[in-house]
Amino acid sequence: MAPLLQARDIAKSFGRTPALRGLSLTIDAGEVVAVTGPSGSGKSTLLHCLAGITRPDAGEVRFGDTRLDRLDEETRTRLRRDNFGVVLQFGHLVPELTAAENIALPLMFAGAERRAAHAAAVEWLGRVGAVECAHLRPGDLSGGQAQRVAVARALATEPSVIFADEPTGALDTIAGEQVLARLLDAVRSRGTTLVLVTHDNQVAAYADREVIVRDGRLAEPAEPYREPDATLPEATR
Ligand SMILES: Nc1ncnc2c1ncn2[C@@H]1O[C@H](COP(=O)(O)OP(=O)(O)OP(=O)(O)O)[C@@H](O)[C@H]1O
């Protein structure tokens, strides 16, 4: 399968603080990849580079055949809007708009007429189990409801990749599991690629693959493959 997202040897510093120090990662279409690692190791910076939000200081980032790191701001923004969905730790919904309007907004940016966008928004709220929230404003939603709305908003434009940065990090276990289950159901049934930053091993366990970031690089697998000890009898190897 052709890789959908590729980072090759990317580096990024903030002032004198190196966040990424030569990291390479390839993600195939339809993969669910969990990005884990210690606090401050560079997970969010990696996500932002892959999503074309941050431009790395060095290295390459590809989405399909397109070099994201070479695009100008305007083209990158358009590409992001057409292809990527983002879910952050605290939904980042527009407080003045209802849940349905929050979801309808990106659909209208993408060219949908208001009434059709609203109907689609309500349908998406149904799919994430939050249809009762349609007319509520973010201030009246629970944390779990707000994250479901944020998930619905990210999914509604039918992006090929969803980038999620600690999407359940602010929720209790049960609410977090429900949000995650809806997100995973939706991406798996549509073949959407999901890049999920999490510090939670239980969340990472739902992914097809876990990559660990340490000090701005990918860590070696925790338990690298070891050759069986040839001096032992076969049955005990
Ligand atoms: N906008 C910024 N300005 C200055 N320093 C930054 C900025 N973003 C990240 N950094 C620094 O870069 C390093 C990596 O940060 P990053 O947020 O990518 O790590 P992380 O693994 O996602 O951390 P956490 O799990 O705590 O969210 C840290 O030292 C951080 O302080």
From TrEMBL:
Xref: InterPro entries: AAA+_ATPase, ABC_transporter-like_ATP-bd, ABC_transporter-like_CS, ABC_transpr_LolD-like, MacB-like_ATP-bd, P-loop_NTPase
GO molecular function annotation: ATP binding; ATP hydrolysis activity; transmembrane transporter activity
Residue ranges occupied by any ABC transporter domain in the UniProt entry: 5-237
Keywords from the UniProt entry: ATP-binding, Nucleotide-binding, Transport
GO cellular component: plasma membrane
Family annotation (Pfam families): ABC_tran (PF00005)
PANTHER family (alphabetical): ABC TRANSPORTER RELATED, IMPORT ATP-BINDING PROTEIN
Name of the protein described by the UniProt record: Putative ABC transport system ATP-binding protein
